[in-house]
Amino acid sequence: MKLAHQEDLVDELNRTVYRQEKKIEELEMLLHALAKRFRELSDSSQDRAAANEKPPHY
């Protein structure tokens, strides 16, 4: 009986670890996408800021 209970527990733990691994992979992909988008926005805002700067003689 103990062995059956332990096997069930191990199976449940394996399923939990699998779900967590999938969630971590999903979150890592989202993080990379957000970081890329942030860099793109940062680059474009720097370009815009440089275009709007007054020349040094003003």
| Helical coverage, percent range | over 70%
What Rg do the Cα atoms give?
25 Å
* Distance from first to last alpha carbon: 86 Å
Query: How does the overall form come out from the CA principal axes?
Result: rod-shaped
Overall mean confidence score, pLDDT: 89
> In this structure, how is the largest beta sheet organized?
none
Secondary-structure element order, as H and E?
H
Low-confidence stretches: none
Number of helical regions: 1
Q: What is the tally of beta strands?
A: 0
Structural class: mainly alpha
How much strand? under 5%
Sum up the structure in keywords.
58 residues, mainly alpha, 88% helix, 1 helix
Structure described in brief:
With 58 residues, this protein is mainly alpha-helical. It has one helix at 2-52.
Topology:
Layout: H1 2-52
How is this structure best described in words?
With 58 residues, this protein is mainly α. Helices cover 88% and strands 0% of the residues.
